[in-house]
Design brief:
Blueprint lengths: L2 H11 L4 H8 L3 H8 L7 H11 L3 H5 L12 H22 L8
Length: about 100
């Protein structure tokens, strides 16, 4: 899952509209749309704002699914990857209406 999709899943799980997220980030709604549709990469400062809004670590957004599938990763990094996957799964379940809200 790319960064834009992760942001969209988190936003919807938080029951926010694009305009709400844009307002919190102090950017335009069209920029949020471009980011969520992977047509524009968010800046580091925008990523930090998103993390603050959703109370998540930056690693949740920049997590590389393919890289974490490697058996060569040290155990600590593999556990971190599993934690990130769990956070995204909770958010996605909430997005689909199949689970409790993300509690962090």
């Amino acid at each position: 899952m790319d960064i834009g999709t992760r942001i969209k899943v988190l936003r919807i799980a938080a029951k926010m509209e694009q305009k709400d997220l844009a307002s919190e980030m102090q950017v335009s709604t069209s920029l949020v749309s471009l980011i969520e549709n992977s047509k524009r990469e968010p800046s580091l400062s925008q990523l930090k704002k998103i993390c603050r809004i959703f109370s998540i670590p930056l690693s949740v957004l920049v997590h590389d699914d393919e890289a974490t599938q490697s058996r060569d990763l040290p155990r600590k990094f593999q556990q971190d990857a599993n934690n990130i996957n769990e956070i995204m799964l909770k958010a996605f379940s909430q997005f689909l209406g199949q689970g409790p809200a993300h509690d962090k």
